[in-house]
Amino acid sequence: MEKKQLLIVDDEKEVTSFFTYFLKHKNCEVTVVHTGKEVERLLAAPDRAFHAALLDLKLPDANGLDLLERIKSAFPQCEVLIMTGYSTIQSAVTAIQRGAKDYLEKPFDDLNSLERIIDSLLEPSVQQADELAQEAAAFGILYSPDSPMAKVVAIAKKLAPKGIHILIEGETGTGKELLARFLHGASMRAKQPFIAINCGAVPESLLESELFGYEKGAFTGAVKARKGLFELAHNGTLFLDEIGEAPASIQVKLLRSLETGEFMRVGSEQVAKSNIRFLSATNRNLEHEADANRFRRDLLYRLEGIKLSIPPLRERIDDIPLIAQSLLEQKSKGSCEIDEEAIQIMQRYDWPGNVRQLINVVNQTWALHECRVLRPEHLPGSLREKAYSQVIPAPAPSKMEQQIDAECSRFVQSITRLVTSTEQIDFDYLTRRIKQLETEISRAVIEKGLAETNGDRQLLSKKLNITKRTIRYILNEKG
User: Fold this and answer.
1) Closest to 230 (Cα-Cα) out of 258, 200, 198, 189
2) Alpha-carbon distance 106 to 84, whole Å?
3) Is 377 exposed, middle or buried (0-12, 13-18, 19+ CB in 10 A)?
4) Is 385 buried (19+), middle (13-18) or exposed (0-12) by CB count in 10 A?
5) Are 316 and 149 in contact (CB under 8 A)?
6) What phi and psi values does residue 101 have, to the nearest 5 degrees?
7) Are 79 and 51 in contact (CB under 8 A)?
8) I need a labelling partner for 62 at 20 to 30 A (CA). Which of 265, 309, 362, 449 fits?
9) Where on the phi/psi map is residue 76: left (φ > 0), alpha (ψ -120 to 50), or beta?
10) Dihedral pair phi/psi, residue 237, rounded to 5°
């Protein structure tokens, strides 16, 4: 079996010596360098190709993020593992967003975990992405393989066991609480409580007692002591939804609790402690809120140990068929499908309410029609009108598109000459034949593409910039 070529980049010789020893029984050939200049020399050598790399983010003469991009550019198939100290975790997440597979925190205490990560680096499994998608689907998060949501979920999976406080950003309806539940479920606290509160839905006068609890007699109506969410979430996760709506008085108390883990019930003078992992979410830009003095910047720094941003639905249109069909299958017990034209209408719409709005539309449509095939006429009229009115700027035509345009022009000229040179012509036959020609060309292109990709519909969908559903529609229904 061919040995894997592994590159280790770290300026600490103790680290490189440790990995050289640690990896000596693996099926790999290790190359060790200590500086960015040495990396550049390796990348310039045409006879070197690396399967994997362990890269320290902080080098004396180079930026680790820049080196990551250089390595991925020179060896696109090279899997890169980032090594970092706790203080640079945010940089490690940035590295993952730029193509790194995962990150390791120094010092390397858990050697079993370290070995598992390195094994996955040297022998990447094609099933890992599918397994992660299935795991996310169990929490209601659905996405296609090439969706920007796939990267968000992959990063969340890596961060979940770390115990870091995470701030989730995203527009209303994007599924921030679903991601928070996924983070909890993939964490070491998964068997402990997950407690959620919407900070904008509780009146300011009640929010403090909801969070911290109260003693008997603390205020009118407090006939007995009551635990707050801080106590109920002990050893688990507390999810602070719409944290940007929290009033200033609560922000001060939250800051104290995040720093020390301490809190006091309303009406009590006794300090209590709780072991909580904080997840928070907002549809506001908290940086702008802090600049405007509407949100405490010190609290923001505490909450956003790591920041995850969920893309709006309009930026993940390939996920729309998957989400809509999944919802319909649940409602109809598998008896209803969505036709291609209805899917295209959904993908043209901009979904200001995001996934939540899509769920409402599918539920409403099924309740009204309960059809075997959901067609455009079943969709709400307002959605169809807005979808058709969306102005999508046309990109500059590619060389291939220019060639297709030229061939189409020659075809039109040829047919026009033929028709005008004939005294009689069945115009209905002409139009029917042209429509048939559209089907024949579409089917021929799909069949030739499948032959060239060995039947790989995922690869063909990327090549033709269409969905796998469209391929199936052309082969089956149009055929």
Assistant:
1) 258
2) 6
3) exposed
4) exposed
5) yes
6) -80, -40
7) yes
8) 309
9) alpha
10) -125, 135
User: Per the structure block, which two tokens stand in for 26?
Assistant: 């693996």
Nearest alpha-carbon partner for 5 in 40, 34, 43? 43
Residue type, 269: E
Structure tokens belonging to residue 275? 């072991």
Describe the crossing of helices 340-348 and 319-332 by its angle, rounded to 10 degrees.
120
Of 129, 274, 98, the closest CA to residue 192 belongs to: 274
Structure tokens at 228: 């707050």
CA-CA distance, 282 to 288, in Å (whole number)? 12
Residue type for 202, please? V
Cα-Cα end-to-end distance for the chain? 46
Kindly report, residue by residue over 189-223, the tens digit of the pLDDT: 999 999 999 999 999 889 999 999 999 998 888 88
395 pLDDT tier (thresholds 50, 70, 90): low
DSSP 259-279: HHSEE--BT----EE---EEE
Are 250 and 232 within 8 A, CB to CB?
A: no
Q: What is the DSSP letter of 226?
A: B
In 3-state terms, what secondary structure has residue 105?
strand
Structure token digits, residue 259: 């720093």
Phi-psi map region of 246: left, alpha, beta (phi>0 left; psi -120 to 50 alpha): beta
